[in-house]
Each structure stands twice: as structure tokens, then as C-alpha cells.
Amino acid sequence: MTRISLPGFDLDPDATDRPAVASRLQVADHDAEIPVHDHRKGQLILALHGAVTCEVANALWIVPPQCGVWIPGSMPHSNRATANARLCYLFVEPGVVGLPLHCVTLSISPMVREMILHLADVPQDYPRGGHVERLARVLLDELVQMPAERLYLPVSDHPKIRALAAALSANPADRSTISEWAKRLALGERTLTRLIDRETGLSFGRWRQQLHLLVAIRELAGGASVQRVSESLGYESVTAFITMFKKALGQSPTRYFAARLRNQDSAARGD
């Protein structure tokens, strides 16, 4: 059993056997990071504002505003939030409802978000069989209906892949070719190409583009401008960056976040 402790936030999620409990977290003036840990309960990390990145199950998961990442119980993970983040954590008792047995990013409807926020405002030891427990069970029934979004980057335990992921995460503007990366990693180009495909299921180009997409969402949610993000990712023009973003998510960065800001306004009581 693991206790989560951050400034202004203290919760032992496994201290209760209620079907679901929730708690809020506001990150102010600094990034907040929870190192690798696990707990018996499954966890939904909901971003009300800003964003959070989770590393779990050989992948990096990004949680933009009005989305949540579902992490099944007893699965080791770490979380890192942007400095402007407002989060809500929902912990779910195993076996209560048929949530996935794997990690997934979910698009959260305004109704489900409001139900989670309400649950965060009540005592975690709420009475059995009462109104709050009935609300919690309806919330979980609704949660399983939420659509999934492909906002993750596959990263395996292979040391070469992790070294590549760490280097590109530290400097996403690096436009080195796969041949150049192969030399740095002391591998042949064809060997590295096959390794990336085998370990991630993606080509090198697709894999790096997905990393760029996750970095872009995190930085834009943290308040950076489209121009700044485009430059930080090494794009030759803002237009090229917007084209990549729109191709991946169906909307330009401005429209993508405008839709989330509209939902965020109705969640103002989470301030």
C-alpha cells in the first residue's frame, strides 16, 4: 500500500473499500512529480487545467485538459504535472465495474467530470448504501462509456529504445536521421529500424512524430504559444507544425484547446 504525498495533497487511496473515492490537486509555481509507485485501486487522473504526463506500462501517456488517463490497480506508474495544472484523482475499487485492464486515455464528458468533482467534495468514508455510494456507482457506469484517445508513446524496456526516448524527450528538436541515431547507439541502421518497429509497433518517423505530438499537447496546455512550441520541436514553420497536429488530432492546436477551454469554464468550481 502506497501513500501519495504532495504539497497540499495527502491521500492513502487504499485506506477505504468504497467503490470510488476522489481528491483534488492544484499545482502552483512548480512542477509536481510523483515518483514510481502503485496502489491496489485503479486510478483515473483527470486534468481540469494544464496537463500531466504519466509513465506506465512501457509507455508515456499525456493527459490534456478535460481528459483522463486510466491506470489499472497494482500497476507501477509515475506522474508529472505542468506548473499550472489542476487535477482530480479518482480511485476505483478493483472489480466494481468493467474498466479496462490496460492503460488508456479517456475523453471525459462534462457530466462525468462534474460527478467526479462532487465525489471529491465529500468524505471518503461515506455511508454504505447512501446517496453518495449510489452516485459513485452511476459515475463508474458512465466512465466505462467514455471514448478513448490515442495520446501515448510506446516505450519498451529495451535499453537502446529507452536511451533514444530519453534523448528525444530532452531535446525534441533534434532532427537527426535514423542513420545518425544508429551510430550514436552503436547499432546498424537496419538493426535499429527493426528494433524500433519490434519494440514500439511504429516506424522511427511515426514514433518521433507521436513524441512531438505529446510534447506539443503538454507545452500548449502549460500555456506556451503555438509559435514557441513549433520552434521547440524543430519545425521549419508554424504551418508545418499545425499540419502535423491537425493530421493527428483532426483539429488545429487553437481549435483543439478552445474546445477544452469551453469545457473548463463550466468546471470553474475546481479552481
TrEMBL record:
InterPro entries: AraC-bd, Homeodomain-like_sf, HTH_AraC, RmlC-like_jellyroll, RmlC_Cupin_sf. It comes from the Bacteria. Keywords: DNA-binding, Repressor, Transcription, Transcription regulation. Residues 162-259 form the HTH araC/xylS-type domain. CDD domains: cupin_NimR-like_N. One of its GO terms (molecular function) is sequence-specific DNA binding. PANTHER family: HTH-TYPE TRANSCRIPTIONAL REGULATOR NIMR. This is Helix-turn-helix transcriptional regulator. It comes from Stenotrophomonas lactitubi.
